[in-house]
C-alpha cells in the first residue's frame, strides 16, 4: 500500500482495494464483452443494437474509471492489466461465435446481470468493512448497471 493520510485503517483499505480490484476485473471484462457484441452484431436490428452495445460499453468505461481511481485513492494499485482481468473476472465467458442480434442481447444481458449481482454484493462488503464511500460508489454503479440491463433486456421481450 502506498502511504496516504486517508483515515481508514490500513487493513480496511487493503481489504477494500482487493474488493475494488475484483470488481475492476469484472467491469473491464463487461466493457470488452459489450464491445464484442457491438463489433459483431448482425441482423435486422443491427443499427439499434450496434448503438446500444456501444452505449453500454461507454457507461461501463465510467465504472472502470471510478473503481480504479478509488483503489488508487486508498493507497492501493488499480490492477487493470489483461493478466489481472483474465485471472479475476467472475463473468461468464462471451462466445466468439455469436452474430445474431438476439443472441448478443441474451449473452450481454447475462453478463450485465452477473456484474450487477457482484456490484450489489460489493455494497454490503464495503459497508461491513467500514467504508461508506466505497459502498456508495458501488451503489451508484449498481443503479446504473440495472439501467443498462433494462435497456438491453427490453430487446428480449417477446411479441404477444
From TrEMBL:
What EC number(s) would the UniProt record show? 1.16.-.-
Q: What keywords are assigned to this protein?
A: Oxidoreductase
Pinpoint the Ferritin/DPS domain residues: 18-157
Q: Sorted alphabetically, which SUPFAM superfamilies does this protein's record hold?
A: Ferritin-like
Please indicate if the UniProt record lists Oxidoreductase as a keyword.
yes
- Xref: Pfam families: Ferritin (PF00210)
State one molecular function term (GO): ferric iron binding
In terms of PROSITE patterns, this protein maps to: DPS_1 (PS00818), DPS_2 (PS00819)
Q: Which InterPro entries does the record match to this protein?
A: DPS_DNA-bd, DPS_DNA-bd_CS, Ferritin-like, Ferritin-like_SF, Ferritin_DPS_dom
| Primary enzyme class | oxidoreductase
Family named by the database record: Belongs to the Dps family.
Q: Which NCBIfam families match?
A: PRK09448.1
What is this protein identified as? DNA protection during starvation protein
Q: Which source organism does the UniProt entry give?
A: Paludisphaera borealis
Q: What is the lineage of its organism?
A: Bacteria, Pseudomonadati, Planctomycetota, Planctomycetia, Isosphaerales
Gene it is expressed from: dps
Amino acid at each position: 500500500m502506498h502511504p496516504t493520510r486517508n483515515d481508514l485503517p490500513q487493513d480496511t483499505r487493503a481489504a477494500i482495494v482487493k474488493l475494488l480490484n475484483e470488481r475492476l476485473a469484472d467491469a473491464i471484462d463487461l466493457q470488452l464483452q459489450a464491445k464484442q457484441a457491438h463489433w459483431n452484431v448482425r441482423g435486422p436490428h443491427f443499427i439499434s443494437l450496434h448503438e446500444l452495445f456501444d452505449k453500454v460499453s461507454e457507461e461501463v468505461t465510467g465504472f472502470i474509471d471510478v473503481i480504479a481511481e478509488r483503489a488508487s485513492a486508498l493507497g492501493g494499485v488499480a490492477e487493470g492489466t489483461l493478466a489481472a482481468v483474465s485471472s479475476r473476472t467472475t463473468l461468464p465467458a462471451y462466445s466468439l461465435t455469436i452474430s445474431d442480434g438476439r443472441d448478443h442481447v441474451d449473452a450481454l444481458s447475462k453478463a450485465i446481470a452477473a456484474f450487477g449481482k457482484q456490484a450489489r454484493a460489493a455494497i454490503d462488503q464495503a459497508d461491513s468493512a467500514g467504508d461508506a464511500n466505497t459502498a456508495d460508489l458501488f451503489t451508484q454503479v449498481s443503479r446504473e448497471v440495472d439501467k443498462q440491463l433494462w435497456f438491453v433486456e427490453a430487446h428480449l421481450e417477446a411479441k404477444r
